[in-house]
Amino acid sequence: MKEQFFVHTDNYVKFTPAEKDLLAAVLTFRKVNAKTELVSFDKRTDQLFFLLKGCIRKYYVKDGEQITIHILTENNFVSAFDSLMTGSPSKEVIECLEPCELLTLKKADLETLYHQIPGMNELVRKLLEQTLIQFQQALTSFILDNPEERYKKLVAKNPGILQRVPQHMFATYLGITATSLSRIRKRILAKA
Amino acid sequence: MKEQFFVHTDNYVKFTPAEKDLLAAVLTFRKVNAKTELVSFDKRTDQLFFLLKGCIRKYYVKDGEQITIHILTENNFVSAFDSLMTGSPSKEVIECLEPCELLTLKKADLETLYHQIPGMNELVRKLLEQTLIQFQQALTSFILDNPEERYKKLVAKNPGILQRVPQHMFATYLGITATSLSRIRKRILAKA
DNA sequence: GATAAACGTTTACAAAAGACAAGAAATGCT
DNA sequence: AGCATTTCTTGTCTTTTGTAAACGTTTATC
């Protein structure tokens, strides 16, 4: 299953076989049930995940409500970035929505890899550049678009995801209530 | 003025004097008037900026309105990231709100530096990590907080900025109209 | 120093979204 | 298959925000 990981990294940096061995040695395979919390509220985390199979969301809890801030599927890196970087307890919860297959990488191992593998900084730099563009687009959409437009963009960009994730999770992700999303959907259907 | 730049980078990576010379050689100093557009609408950009002095905002144009998406002050990197990375025409405008002093770095020179200076990938990786945390916090705030809370956080985080930027630019930055911001300010004053 | 432009606030009215509650439909579990 | 839970929709009422326009004030510019 680690081949799938390297297929992904090959898009950014070509590691030598020896380097891949070093990396593979610190990647741990993990298979978990739906509803597993990879990172729990107010707990520190020292690892990052690569999602091989399944679907994951990140959410915050505000006034007793779960507010989804991110939804991811196969072949993406996931982590409670804030907690990982600063060492503070995580305010975001990372939860599996389906049975998932993951690779985990400890932060300490990553730090070691930065010294062992010259291309590692380059890989992470490039991954972060991609991530940053995504974040920027998401943030821009919040500023520029109303909820209806955001919903349409989400559907256009990620059609399959709607069948995998309950609607009310999307609602909070769009910054609206489930009630409101239901009305928006109705409005869109009426036009089509 | 390049010392100020290296004071900043020293927080992340310690370059040797020789490396600093290489870097300094491709940094160009620039002094511009207020209202200068560093990146214009629908133009490609091939450089990134380090702001030594002054205040800059990024904005989008939507339905003839300017929507501010970012406001920055001294000692920050600025660029139309999307355009810089993908080579596409920029949808964001970068405008100086005050007379500014900048260092500019061409993308092509940066690519060369990645090969000349081992620590360059590391520097940019670390800068991107910081930036990502900022973006994440901004995005999270949009999902979690209402406009009033976002305004309060902005003021708490950056008290001085209010005196440097017109209120209606903040309003669009918060995702609301100037009218609405005025109401929010009134409400806050009434409580205090 | 005069004039124009930009800025901040306020008002009335319209549109959108939230809160709350009820009920239908789909899904999960044993 | 049957029961419980979750999910989705709908209705009514309230709150918030947007739109548009007016007005006084500040700031720029010549």
List the main descriptive attributes of the protein structure presented here:
4-stranded antiparallel β-sheet; 48% helix; Jelly Rolls; cNMP-bd_dom (chains A, B); 192 residues; alpha+beta; DNA-binding; homodimer
How would you describe this structure to a colleague?
The structure is a homodimer of 192-residue chains. Chain A has 192 residues and is of the alpha+beta class. The first copy, chain A, has two domains: 2-144, Jelly Rolls (Sandwich); 145-192. Helices cover 48% and strands 23% of the residues of chain A. Chain A is built from eight helices and eight strands; from the N terminus they run ααββββββαββααααα. A four-stranded antiparallel β-sheet of chain A has the order 1-8-3-6. In chain A, α7 crosses α8. The radius of gyration of chain A is 18 Å and the shape is globular. The termini of chain A are far apart. At the A-B interface, α3 and α5 of A face α3 and α5 of B. Chain A binds a DNA duplex (30 and 30 nucleotides) through α8. Chains A, B: Residues 30-115 form the Cyclic nucleotide-binding domain. Chains A, B: This is Crp/Fnr family transcriptional regulator.
